[in-house]
Amino acid sequence: MNCSATQSTLCHGLLPRQVCSAWRCLYKQHLWFEELGRLANLKASARSANLSLSFVTRLCFAFTVVLDSDLHVIGSDVTIQISSADDRLMVRLPFGSHTRTFLQEVSRCSPEAVGSESIKQNGKKLAVSQNRSHDSTDKSAPRQNKLKPEVTTEMVRSSNIMVSNKTSILSEPKFGLRDTIVKSQLVQMEDSYTHIQSFRFFVGTYNVNGQSPRESLQPWLRCDAEPPDIYCVGFQELDLSKEAFFFNDTPKEEEWFKAVTDSLHPDAKYAKVKLVRLVGIMLLLYVKADLALNISEVEIETVGTGIMGRMGNKGGVAIRFKFHNTSVCIVNSHLAAHMEEYERRNQDFKDICSRMQFCQSDPNLPPLTIGKHDVILWLGDLNYRLEDLDVAKVKQLVDEKAFLELCQYDQLKRQMNANAVFEGFTEGEISFQPTYKYDAGCDDWDTSEKCRVPAWCDRILWKGQNISQLSYRSHMALKISDHKPVSSVFDIGVKVVNEDLYRKAFEEIVRSLDKLENANIPSVTLSQREFHFEDVKYMQLQVEKFTIRNGQVPCQFEFISKPDEETYCKEWLIANPSKGFLLSDAEITIELEVFVNKSTATHLNSGEEKLEDILVLHLNRGKDYFLSVTGNYLPSCFGSPIHTLCYMREPIQDMPAESIRKLTLMPLEMSDDAVQAEKPMDIPKELWMMVDHLYRNASQQEDLFQQPGLRSEFEQIRDCLDKGMHDTLLGSNHSVAEALLLFLESLPEPVICYRFYSSCLESASNYSLSSQIISNLPGCHKNVFEYLMAFLRELLKNSGKNHLDVNILASVFGGLLLRPPPGHPTPDITEKRKAQQFIHQFLLREDNLP
Fold it and tell me: Where does the record place a coiled coil (predicted)?
C-alpha cells in the first residue's frame, strides 16, 4: 500500500465498524514477508511489512469519503480522501483484489452510517447502488448490461488502466457458500452459454542490455497492417546498475513505458491495463480501449530466482486477467545465463511455476497458479543456448538459413523433448536467425574476447486451446542491444458469454440448488488421516498427499486454527490448498508440505520444537476432521548459533541429541567463559570448509555470489557439512557460494549481533568507531567477521577475472552480517545503504582490528 499527501497513515477512531474492518483487512493483506519464497519449492510466497503507522487520525462520524481516481477507469492506483473537520487523509491503494475488497466494505455502509455526506467521486457525490440485495447469490446473478463510457486518448499515457462498471465494483457483495456453489456449477455448464470469438494478441520480448530507448520501437511493435486487440510487451535487463539490482529502483521503467506507448499501432486507441517490474524484468499489458470493459480480475505477481532464491536479477513477472470468460496469464521471465547452466534454467522455470500465485476475488478459494489458466503466454530471455557446435559451424548454418537443422542443437528444444521443462507448452517454427549475441549498434555477431556462440535466447511459447500463431519473427532493425527483439502474433479464441443463455443456466442452477439446500449435512471421506515425514532435512521439501472425496451435498472446506493458536498449522507445515470447494461426488488432492527453514531450524535442533501437529479440517455447516502429522528432523549446522558450532568438534549428526540441545540453548554470553571442558574452535569448521573451498577453487570465478547454484547440489553440500564428509564439497562453485550465504542467513544471531545494529548504522561512515564495535563482539563472532573480511579482500584482488567489486560484496554481505533485530521495521533503502557502507569500510582496509 502506498500512502501519500501530508498525512500518510492508516486511520482508526470513530469510523463505522465495517470501514475499520476494511482498513484492518487491507493493512494485513499488504504485509510483505522479508523472504519471498526462499527456494522454488516453497509454493506460497510470503510478504513483509512495507508501511508503518506513524500516527493516528481521529475521525468523527461526520466525515466524507472521496474517491479521487475515476472509477470508470479501473486498474490504476485508486486514491481515497477521507475528510473530517480539519483533518484530511489521502491514501493511494494499488489496483487488485484487496483494494476491491476495501471498496466493497465502504460501499456496504449506507449514507446514514457513513455520515452526513455521501461517498463522492472526484469531488462529486457518488451514490452507492441501491439495487443490491442482501442475498448472497447476487454475485452470480445474471449480469447487467454495461454502459461504455467515453474513452479519451489520454488513457494510454495516464496511469489509468481499464474501463469497468463502477457500480458493480462498489456494490459487490460478500462471497458465501451458496454463491460459491452457483459459480462452480456455472463453470461446469460454461459451454452451454458461451461461444468462441477470436481476438488478436501481439506478444513481444526484448532484452535491452541496460540501454535507454534511443530508437523508435515501431519496427517491432507496429509491423503489421492490422492493429492487435491486446499488446503483451516484455523487457529484460531494463537496468543493469547496482542501484536497480540491490534496491529495485530505476528511472528506466518510465523511459521504456513511454517508448512503448508512443510506438503502439496508430489505427487503434489503447488503454494500459497493467505494468509490473522486478529489477530489470518488466511486463506491459495494453488492450484496445473499446474492449477494456471485457477485462476483469487483473492481478500481478513477481518471483525472484536469483542468488538465495530471492534476488530479482533473474526470475519472472506475470499479469493474469479474465478476458470475457477466458482466464489468461502472461509470464515474462529471465532465466539463468551461461551455456552449461541449462539445469539451472529448468529449475528457474519450475520455481516460477510453483511460487507464482495470484489472489482470487473470492476469498474462500485458494490462490491461482500459472497452470490454472485457460491461456498461458510465456515470453522472455529464456537463455537456452545452442550446444555441441562451435561458433564457426553455427554461423555457417545461419548463413545457409538451415534453421531446422540448427534447432536440433537447441537446448530448449532438447529439454522440452525430454519433458524436463515447459511440459505441455508449444513453440512455433523458428524461421529467423539467432537473436543473441550481437555487437551493439549493428548486426555483427559478437566480436568480444568471449565470442559467444549465437543462440535463440529470446523465445515465446504458449499453452491452451483455440490458439493459432500467425507469425513468429525477430526484428533486426533495432540495434541498441546485444539481443534482437522477438514478436509473435496470435489469434486466440476467447469464450464470450451469451447473456440470455447465461441467465437460463443460472436460473436452472438456482432451482436445482433450492431443492438440495438443507436436505443433508455435508460429509467427506479422507483417504488418509495420519502422516509421518521421515528424516526431514534443512530446506529440503517433503510432500505427502491425500484425497478428500465429497458426498452428495456440495461443501466448502478449510483447515482452521485450533483454540489459542493463530494459524491452522505449525510454521514448518503447509496444506495446499488450505481451503476450497467441492461439488457433489467431487474429489480433490491435498498436498501436505513440510519445509524447515531458518525460522524453525534452531528450535528443532535444540528439541524445543518437534515435528508434531494436528490439523483440523472444517466443513462449512458440517463436522470437523482431525489429521495427525509427525516426523523426525535431522539436526543441521544451518540454523545453529555460531558459538554452538564452535564447540562442536564432531559433525552435528554424529552428536547425541542431548549434547546438541545443551550447546544450542547455551547463552551467547556464556560462550566466552570457560564453562566447557574443551576450548572452542575459533570459527565453525563448517564455515571454514566452505570458505576454504571457495578460496582454493573460485577466486577467479565469474559472477560469484551473484549467480545461484543448483538446489540438488546445495543438498549435497549440506549433507557433507552435517555428516562430516569434509574431504571435498560436492557441487559447483556457485552452489558452494550460495550455501555460504544461506548458512550466514540461517544464523539465529547474525555475525554482528542484533544489539549492535543501530550503532553500526550510526558509525557507517566512521571506520574508527566501526572497528571499535567489531572489537566488542563476542569472541567467536569477531573471529568470523575478521575471517570473512579477509576472504572477501582476497576475492577483490582477483576482480579482473571474477568481475567482483567492493560495492557488490558490500551489498550482498551487508544484509547478511548486519541484520535488524526481530520486531524492527523492514529496512528501507537508507538503512540498506548504511549497512552496505558499514561493510564497505572493512573491504577497503586490511588494518588489524583492536
Answer: none
Helix (H) or strand (E) holding 531: strand 530-536
Cell of 696: 582454493
Q: Is 313 helix (H, G, I), strand (E, B) or coil?
A: coil
Q: Which three three-digit cell numbers place residue 25?
A: 483487512
Q: For residue 59, what pLDDT band results from cuts at 50, 70 and 90?
A: low
* Distance in angstroms (rounded) separating the CA atoms of residues 587 and 550: 6
Interatomic CA distance for residues 671 and 675, integer angstroms = 8
Q: Which three cell numbers stand for residue 63?
A: 466525515
Residue 477 grid cell: 532493425
pLDDT band at 240 (very low <50, low <70, confident <90, very high): confident
- Cα–chain-centroid distance for residue 469? 29
Q: Using pLDDT thresholds of 50, 70 and 90, give the confidence band for residue 196.
A: very high
**Residues near 543 by beta carbon (within 8 Å), at least 6 away in sequence:** 591, 592, 593, 594
Count of alpha carbons within 13 Å of 444, Cβ hemisphere only?
A: 8
Give the angle subtended at the CA of 787 by the CAs of 785 and 788, to the nearest 5°: 65
Q: Could you tell me which of 355, 370, 358 has the C-alpha nearest to residue 37?
A: 355
Question: Could you tell me the three cell numbers for 786?
Answer: 575478521
Using DSSP bridges, classify how beta strands 530-536 and 624-633 pair: parallel, antiparallel or unpaired.
parallel
Instruction: Output phi, psi for 504, to 5 deg.
Output: -65, -45
Residues across the chain: 850
Closest alpha carbon to 380 in 249, 204, 248:
204
- Return the higher-pLDDT residue of 509 and 456: 456
Number of neighbouring beta carbons within 10 Å of residue 157 = 13
Distance CA 385, CA 209 (A): 18
Q: Where are the beta strands (DSSP E) in 174-307?
A: 194-207, 230-236, 270-278, 281-288, 295-304
Which residues are paired to 579 by β-bridges? 558
For CA atoms 582, 169, 359, 317, the dihedral sign is positive
Q: Mean pLDDT of all residues in the chain? A: 83
The whole-number pLDDT of residue 99 equals: 64
Residue 485 · residue 436 · CB < 8 Å: no
Q: Phi and psi of 318, rounded to 5°?
A: -150, 150
Element (H, E) at 544: strand 542-550
User: Tens of pLDDT along 496-510?
Assistant: 999 999 999 988 888
Q: Is 26 helix (H, G, I), strand (E, B) or coil?
A: helix
Nearest C-alpha neighbor of 582 from the set 524, 512, 625, 506: 524
Give bridge partners of residue 512 from the DSSP assignment: none
pLDDT digits (tens, 9 = 90+) for 619-674: 988 889 999 999 999 999 999 999 999 999 999 999 999 999 999 999 887 755 54
Cβ atoms 638, 718 nearer than 8 A: yes
Q: Which residue has the cell 456440495?
A: 554
- In 289-338, the DSSP E strands lie at 295-304, 315-323, 326-334
In tens, the pLDDT along 704-732 reads: 998 889 999 999 999 999 998 766 788 89
State the pLDDT confidence band at 544, using cuts at 50, 70 and 90: very high
* 3-state SS class at 50: coil
Q: Rounded mean pLDDT of 593-600?
A: 96
Q: Return the ∠ at Cα 666 (arms to 665 and 668), rounded to 5°.
A: 115
Q: Mark residue 331 as left, alpha or beta (left: phi above 0; alpha: psi -120 to 50; beta: remaining).
A: beta
Is the CB of residue 228 less than 8 Å from the CB of residue 201? yes
| Location of C-alpha cell 528443532 | 604
668, 749 contact by CB (below 8 A): yes
Query: CA–CA separation, 570 vs 559, rounded Å?
Result: 12
All three cell numbers of 805, joined, read 567489486
Task: Judge contact between 476 and 398, C-beta under 8 A.
Answer: no
pLDDT at 183: 83
**Among 6-10, 19-23, 392-396, 821-825, the least confident range:** 6-10
Q: What is the pLDDT of residues 340-377, one digit of tens each?
A: 999 999 999 999 999 999 988 777 778 999 999 999 99
